[in-house]
Design a protein that fits this description.
six-stranded antiparallel β-sheet, single chain, alpha/beta, TATA-Binding Protein, 21 strands, six-stranded mixed β-sheet, Alpha-D-Glucose-1,6-Bisphosphate, Chain A, domain 3, 473 residues
Amino acid sequence: MTRIAFGTSGWRGILCEDFIFENVRVVTQAIADHVISQGEREKGLIVGYDSRFMGERFARESARVLAGSGIKVLLCDRDTPTPVISFEILRRKAAGAINFTASHNPPEYNGIKFSPAWGGPALPETTGDIERRANEMLGEICYKERPLDQALREGLLEEIDCRPAYLADLATKIDFDAVGRVGGIALNPLYGTARGYLDAPLLARGVSFRQINDQRDPYFGGFAPEPAEKNIQDFIGLVKKEPAIRLGLATDGDADRFGIIDDDGSYIEPNYIIALLLDYLVRVRRISGGVARSVATSHLIDAVARHHDIEVFETPVGFKFIGELISQDKIVIGGEESAGLTIKGHVPEKDGILACFLVAEMVAHEGQPVRVLLERLYEKVGRYLTKRENIRLSAELEAAFPAKIAATPTEFAHLKVKEKVTLDGNKFILEDGSWLLFRKSGTEPVVRLYGESSSEERLQAIIAAGKAFIQQS
């Protein structure tokens, strides 16, 4: 390991290669030093983990290091959803949390996510300070440790159950009486932390549901724990097979992302869910404020915002930027195309559990399947179709990419480029409102290509033009 680097949601690595106990101790000490430098030692830190391999062990090792620096540790008693940890930071007024999670990454990964006292993912200035401290310590025995039994005796360790308070708060933000009227609901926590969170509100109210993949499995059934269409074919098959099921609700490994399956087994793109919920929250719930979306997220959200005359905030990719707007009470809802959202008055963090139940409430209130609600929305604001592809680069194409993207093409698929946006990557707005976005991965030779247009034919044309632009030598 030569360098610790935090990405959009923390430091991640492959187990037994760079994600090892020694590096976990170093990063934990860097976080401890950062917290102490902010004068927040006495507030304590929450330490949580998802359902990945060795999560408990990493969390307990982190607790030893924090206690060694005199920081009280509030250690989660089981694998815990990321949004629940965020809620607990705010509820307890803690200095923040260390969460061992790699979210939707494949099973061989784990990660450390630091969330400071405001409850959202750490902003770049915070992660930059932690990175600097960690990299200065790599290769040295620089951390302090305290045995956990000693920490317990000295009041520096407390085991906590986060479920009751979060579920009680969720009941104030979701109309579960309406959810109960949906009829048959299918649940898929995808072997992750939403076990006991997705089902508990329904069990408590006697609501009928079917659930699969509700046991812990660090291999996540052999797939990446992301509720994307390709990873949840067993769940889609269940919804298609059983006529009584009207809605399928899925979450990812740490329950901060969502996946929605309509009653006919069709997978609904997260982009469209965010737009539908924006319309529902403003039109039905009468919540006021703007809306935030990342630069890679559908402009269908902008069209809904224009329809309701509300402000749109476009952010770089990374939910921390949306979370900051939530914490400032500026927006009704914020979301990313990668299936993360939260709403006004809730945590400044992605919450897949909340998202699933909001969709169920919306379906119950409107009395129609999601695809019908989407067509109804299109009739009001126009049709928007989105697509994302990952394009792997040869060494030659990767070397040429920076210069290529620095120039602004005049057109794509015979549509003139009207505007170039460089907020995060390079986004080209075309004359008919269609757009393309190119974002280079920071960790592998891959360009993420996003596109949107008003028809499937035009969308395929601009995506093809985007791929040709990247791949031309």
